[in-house]
Amino acid sequence: MAATASDAEFLRARAAVYDLLAAAFDGDVETLTAAMADGSFRELASVLPVEPDVDPLVVEDPDPEALSIGYDNLFVVPGPHYVPPFASAHADEPSHEFESDSAFHEAGSAGELYGDPAARMARRYERLGFTPERGDGIPDHLAVQLSFLTSLAAARADADDLTTRDELRELEGETLAAMGWLDAFDESVADQDRAEGVFAALTRLTRTIVAWDAKRARSEAETDRDEDESRPTSSG
């Protein structure tokens, strides 16, 4: 059985939202400026239970060059304002087995590249046959995780049997639950992007969306468990 028309429409809308956010965090300035100019972020924030401040993301004529420089300073070039856009760098604990020759990382400490969060995300991608194309292919890069959520929502919308949809929903729930690192990431970006505030607002919006979606996913899973437990079992 395929998803109902309303379910499929909701899933495709979610896919479009995550695709926009993935592009923005991958440095796609053209997509970002277009969304800022046409009010997409304002419209998106208005449907959330808690509406974050998106004023910096609503600009009639955004400057692509300034946005590109701002993105690079925050998320690409290590420097005084650099905030790594991948989960491993914000892990509270170091990975069990991790070696790094980076001058910016001390062995045995958290905050690495390609740590345990990346390995876990890579295994999730394998389950869907997903190949990261954004975020320089770093498995736990925010742009890649958002792109994966895009693919999951689109796949759920197109799935034609209940088993496949349930498997996809479970994988989606795991992915959303693994994105709690956005709390620390959001706070760091807010500290470093105090001038223009575009990427601070974008990060806060993304954190809010993911948190809301994770709550929705947990609620769906709990409802399913309750329904399963209430079904009468066959006596043989």
Automatic annotation (TrEMBL):
Disordered: annotated span: 214-236
Protein's UniProt name: Putative component of anaerobic dehydrogenase
Origin superkingdom: Archaea
Keywords tagged on the record: Chaperone
Species annotation: Halapricum desulfuricans
Pfam family, one: Nitrate_red_del
Repeat is among the record's keywords: no
SUPFAM superfamilies in UniProt: TorD-like
Coiled coil: none
